[in-house]
Automatic annotation (TrEMBL):
It comes from Inquilinus limosus. Keywords: DNA-binding, Transcription, Transcription regulation. Residues 4-64 form the HTH tetR-type domain. This is TetR family transcriptional regulator. It holds the Pfam family TetR_N. Coiled coil: none annotated.
Amino acid sequence: MSTPDTKTRILAAAEQVVLERGVPALTLDAVAEAAGLSKGGLIYHFESKEALIRAMIARIGACMQDRMDKLNAADGGAGGWTRAYLGAAFPPPGTPDDQDAMREAALIAALGYDPALLAPYAAQYAGWVGQQRTDGIDPVLAAIVRLAADGLWLNEVFGIRAVDPADRAAVLQRLRDMTRGA
């Protein structure tokens, strides 16, 4: 199997381990087993647990950026970037773009192992905030929408789920409407 395919398989296995067994179970041995590799095969691609978690974080950042770019290009209007952020953070369930589990696993792993590993993602996020300021809508309104979305997303990541599915859909629609001046 080619290196990119193997790396993708390893990252998916690491995400699966975190989601199914929790951060303490994220060991190189557990990931190698879940990926169907020897530990040496895993270490060939990721020399340490820290390197693996860094790659998990990089993958979520790249995935979010790709989705936002595509959604923003398709939208093209004022507030399009903010709507793209909402769409990337909350893709329709069951679609190929539904990366919630992947993002949750990576962030939980980073927070549980070493919060400093989130620094590259934080820098990328700061770039997204910069893009938002020039989105063609009131920057404060755009920030309110983004921060509300972040709160809802974190609510789900940490399993609080204080919002029922119908209210969740209504909240997301209202946030989208706010970016259009409705």
